[in-house]
Amino acid sequence: MKKKIIMVVTNEVITDNRVKKEAQSLSKNYSVLVLGFLRNDVKVREKVDNYKILRIKEPILRRLFVKSKLFKSLFTVESNQGLNNKKVQRLSFMDYVGDFLQIMFLLNKSFTVFKKLTMMKADIYHANDLDTLVPCVLAAKKYGGKVIYDSHELCTEEGWVKSIFFKNMMVSIENRYINMCDDVITVNKSIAYELKNRYNLVNKPNVILNTPIQQKINEKPDKKPELMIKKQILKKNKKCLSVLFTGFLAPDRGLEEMVDALEHVNGVHFYIRGFGTIVESLKDRIKKLGISKKVTFLPVVSPDKLIKLSSKYDVGIIFYRKTTLNHLYCTPNKLFEFMMSGLCILANDLPELKRFITQCKSGMVINSEKRDEIKQALEFLRDNPNKLNEFKKNSFKSGKLYTWKAEEKKLLKIYDKLNK
Question: What is the 3-state secondary structure (H, E, C) of 318-368?
Fold first, then answer.
């Protein structure tokens, strides 16, 4: 009889590629159930390939406040503070209220998950991020199971808690319960070292990269509406460099700096595929700068179509700003997706991004917080097609190496070791 794994996540599962890939891989050797939250008209119970999904109602606090104006005003991450900014930020009363509610949301989510887990026995509980860590540890203690903590981010350094008091509270929670886990995995070396040193872990966390499942890229252009738009733009300017952003449109992603740089660069067209909190303000900025003809917003597509569609562009940008330690150490999914798509990667000078791009020779690393550097990099890539193609070829080769197949082997090895 197969041993049972319960993976726990506080989203609706379908939007979490890492969880879906891990569940599919583990289901080859184990019985896997993913416990998530019920939102956005998804089913309560669902079977996907060889694993099952069970969704429970979201915590009452989130259901009451998440759509309110108060929620949005309190939980907006400020973008004016950087890691190198020595100035102490003076917090308002409402900042403390927001932090208090964030902690309440965290505890409320954990309690909601724990109530369900008390009725669900498993051999191994897989906790995805800090908000599921405590209930998984407590459930494992009750049933004599084991726990794997999967830290997708540097959770205590995401920037949504502003006060030192509440941040230290989160750190103390993670510190206590991470040391009660049987194994820890995370997304890159920098976060692995940070977790080990911060919490005095006996062993360094294992790294499971957020690489995509291998896809075949059709070299022949598809007759998609957005690609027809791209062809029309290229007819007008044969030397036009196509630059792509994919993902969530939010502060600190460098979109404002990219748009500002475009004002002073010709022969470059910027494509934006995503949704988020700054869509309208970004459109207003583009209109104000008079560069509407240089920017195209593309429709959101499912992850399985993203890599193939992205392959039709020249450059993919990753411009996370150094506003939090979590941003500093990031390796977003799009890094490996751009590689598999064969795009030249233009990224901010962050340790993990620099390590991969330099090692793979797949693009350029700049200080994307300076608009002039973005401008110079775009002009260089536009005016040096041979170098651009070299970056793209190297990126495509690297994309064949950084696939989920390699990470799956590491993941199964970790689980097999736990079961010995």
Answer: ECCCCCCHHHHCCCCHHHHHHHHHCCEEEEECCHHHHHHHHHHCCEEEECC
Which range, 36-50, 234-248, 404-418, is most confident?
404-418
pLDDT of 103 reads 83
Structural contact between residues 316 and 343, judged by C-beta atoms closer than 8 angstroms: yes
Q: What is d(CA 67, CA 61) in angstroms, rounded to the nearest whole number?
A: 11
Look at residue 232 and tell me whether its pLDDT is greater than 50. no
How far, in whole angstroms, is CA 161 from its chain's centroid?
A: 19
pTM, two decimals, is 0.89
Q: Long-range pairs for 401-407 at CB < 8 Å and ≥24 separation? A: 402/209, 402/211, 402/336, 402/339, 402/340, 403/211, 403/212, 403/213, 403/214, 403/340, 404/21, 404/25, 404/211, 404/212, 404/213, 404/214, 405/213, 405/214, 406/211, 407/21, 407/208, 407/209, 407/211
- Strand stretches in 152-301, DSSP E: 183-186, 206-207, 241-249, 268-276, 295-298
The helix/strand count (H/E) of the chain reads as 17, 14
What is the predicted pLDDT for the residue at 163?
84
Beta-carbon-side half-sphere exposure of residue 113 (alpha carbons within 13 Å)? 31
Does position 233 have pLDDT exceeding 90, yes or no?
Answer: no
| Per-residue three-class SS string for 135-160 | HHHHHHHHHCCEEEEEECCCHHHCCC
DSSP 8-state symbol, 219: -
- Maximum CA pair distance of the chain? 67
Q: Which long-range contacts (CB under 8 A, 24 or more apart) does 48-51 make?
A: 48/20, 48/23, 48/24, 49/24, 50/24, 51/23, 51/24, 51/26, 51/27
**Identity of residue 411:** L
Instruction: Quick: pLDDT tens for 281-312.
Output: 999 999 999 999 999 999 999 888 999 999 99
In angstroms, the CA 379 to CA 241 distance is 9
Task: Specify burial of residue 98 (Cβ count, 10 A radius: 0-12, 13-18, 19+).
Answer: buried
Structure confidence at residue 166 (pLDDT): 86
3-state SS class at 110: helix
